[in-house]
Structure formats: structure tokens, C-alpha cells
Design brief:
The two termini are 25 Å apart. This protein has helices at residues 2-28, 30-38, 43-70, 77-93, 96-111, 116-145, 157-184, 187-192, 199-213, 216-243, 251-265, 270-273, 276-287, 292-310, 313-319. It has 15 helices and no strands. The longest helix is centred in the middle third of the chain and has 30 residues, at 116-145.
Length: 324
């Protein structure tokens, strides 16, 4: 009973935050509310955006399926979809993206009691691939836009710090991937197994990562799938923006705005980072000379659509033993 009450409170809080942000949008710019109420909405575009976001999620579930199968774990594509939906659901109603990953890892580990370390590491590697691809896409957008070299007013200086952090993280992650295999399979890998008490577990982590190093083609496919998924998400944002009344950035600008906003939202905040994505999207709308309230409305519409997609995980969670 306590667990269900806690989940109910979290769900209510998530929707309350959305309602509050929507109210703030209409308070800051009443014209947005008037346009939304009185002007026609392009419902087919909004429906297409929802379909794209659903397909984007399914692509990430398939990516995880590939990464699990590499380790030799018995795992069907249907199980990956079910666990993926459960993780997506708990991204909103637990501890952000970390909360969803914890549920996925726990359920997969329960189904493979003898190889729990490998089950957990598949989720960790899946998350890393997703975040790395997001950094690459955001960095590419920054460089193509030339935003890192622009002169910002003092009040917009935080954007330069975001650009610097994103580019730095991309470079460090790339260098880490290039040299980690040599480091991991050298002295460091040998010393890991000798760590007192934790050596057995760390050695299994070492073996798991070594396995992934031998499947570069699969990792490349996973990275390519992620990039396609994130481009589809950016297109979905553009469809939402053009499906709602009022003007907004074009598609090429959304390919810059969305990855940067998703980088901000990737921080493991409660309620799936509710607020971080909305604030960043509104801020970038303003940078591109569009009303920030309109960007906030687009972000909230995206949230509502993704919540409906996430609710697809609820039946799998309620039916029990979704990893079977």
C-alpha cells in the first residue's frame, strides 16, 4: 500500500508540475493562450509527432536488445520492448532516467540470476551509447551553427558554458573510447581482479566490457540507431511546433535546439528532469528570436505526448514478471 501511495504521489506531482508550467506559459504571454484557444491546430502533424516519438523509443529498445544479446543472455525482442516500456514509464515517475534504468536492470538481473553483473552492465552501456550519441549530435549542431564562437550578452553567458561543457564532454568521451581498450586490457584490467572483496564483481565487469570491445560492429550499429532516434525526436519537436498555432524555428534550427535541450534534460533529476528541458527549450527559443513562452508550450506538448507513450509500460508492470 505504501509503495502504491508513493507512486500515486509521484504521478500526481509530475502532472502538477506540468500544469504549473502550462499556467506560467499563459501568464507570461497571454497571446500564446489566445492563439492556442482560437486558432486551428494541425492534429495530423501532432499525431505524426507522437508516432515518431513512439518509433524513436522502439528503436532504443531494439538497441538495448542488441547490447544484451552480445553478452549471450537469453533475451527476446519482445522482452526488450516490455522492459523498455517499463523503464520509460519510471523515467517520469521515479528518479529520472536513472530510475527507469534501475527498474530495467533489476528485472533483467532477476531473470538471469547467475549473470546479474552482465545484465546490469548492458543497461549501463546502453545508457552510455545513448548519451554519447546525444553529445555528438549536440556538438555537431553547435559547430555547424558556430554558436561557440558567437559573442553573447552577459545574461546569455550560461549558454556559452553549456556549449563548452557539451563539446568538452564529447571530446573526452571520444578519447576515452579510443584509448580505453588498451588501458582496460593492460595493467588496470589485471589489478581490478585483485581488489579485496570487490575483485570478483569488478573482474566480471572487466570481462563484460572486454566482450563489448570485441563487437565493434554491434556498438557501431547501436550508435547509428541512436543518432537516427535522436534525429527523429528533433523532427517530432518540429512537427509539434508547426502543429501548434504561431511561428517557431525551422527544422534545421530544431536539429540544434533539441539535442542541447535533451543534454540539459539528461541530468538525473526527479520526475524525468521535468523543468530542465522546458527551461532550456524556452531559453533557446529566445536565442533564436522567438517568444520563449511558445518554446515552453512546445516542450510541454512533447511532455504530454511522451507521458502517453510511457503509459504503455504500465500494463506490463501490473501484469507481473515482465522479464519472462
Amino acid at each position: 500500500m505504501k509503495r502504491w501511495l508513493l507512486h500515486s504521489v509521484k504521478i500526481a506531482l509530475a502532472f502538477s508540475i506540468l500544469a504549473y508550467l502550462l499556467w506560467k506559459t499563459f501568464q507570461s504571454d497571454p497571446q500564446v493562450y489566445d492563439q492556442l484557444q482560437n486558432e486551428a491546430k494541425d492534429w495530423p502533424r501532432l499525431a505524426l509527432a507522437g508516432l515518431l516519438l513512439l518509433c524513436s523509443s522502439l528503436v532504443t529498445f531494439f538497441r538495448w536488445y542488441l547490447l544484451v544479446r552480445v553478452l549471450g543472455l537469453t533475451f527476446s525482442l519482445w522482452s526488450a520492448i516490455r522492459l523498455g516500456f517499463i523503464g520509460y514509464f519510471f523515467n517520469f515517475f521515479s528518479l529520472g532516467v536513472v530510475g527507469g534504468d534501475i527498474f530495467k536492470a533489476a528485472l533483467l538481473a532477476r531473470a538471469h540470476a547467475g549473470r546479474r553483473t552482465e545484465a546490469v552492465m548492458s543497461v549501463v552501456v546502453d545508457r552510455f551509447v545513448g548519451f554519447y550519441a546525444l553529445l555528438l549530435l549536440a556538438s555537431l549542431g553547435i559547430l555547424l551553427w558556430g554558436g561557440f564562437f558567437l559573442k553573447f550578452p552577459e545574461e546569455e553567458e550560461p549558454l556559452r558554458w553549456l556549449f563548452a561543457a557539451t563539446l568538452s564532454a564529447s571530446v573526452l568521451a571520444t578519447l576515452g573510447l579510443c584509448f580505453s581498450r588498451q588501458l582496460w586490457q593492460g595493467r588496470l584490467g589485471l589489478k581490478i581482479g585483485a581488489v579485496p572483496k570487490l575483485g570478483v564483481y569488478l573482474n566480471r565487469v572487466h570481462t563484460t566490457l572486454t566482450t563489448y570491445f570485441h563487437y565493434k560492429k554491434t556498438l557501431g550499429i547501436a550508435l547509428l540507431l541512436t543518432l537516427c532516434s535522436q534525429v527523429a525526436t528533433a523532427i517530432a519537436f518540429w512537427l509539434i511546433a508547426t502543429g501548434l498555432p504561431g511561428s517557431g524555428p525551422n527544422l534545421s534550427q530544431f536539429l540544434i535546439i533539441v539535442p542541447l535541450s535533451l543534454v540539459a534534460a539528461a541530468v538525473p533529476l526527479p520526475m524525468g528532469g521535468l523543468g530542465a528541458l522546458e527551461a532550456m527549450l524556452a531559453y533557446l527559443y529566445q536565442i533564436f528570436s522567438f517568444p520563449p513562452a511558445r518554446g515552453l508550450l512546445v516542450a510541454l506538448t512533447y511532455r504530454v505526448i511522451t507521458i502517453f507513450v510511457a503509459l504503455g509500460g504500465l500494463p506490463f508492470f501490473l501484469r507481473g514478471d515482465p522479464a519472462a
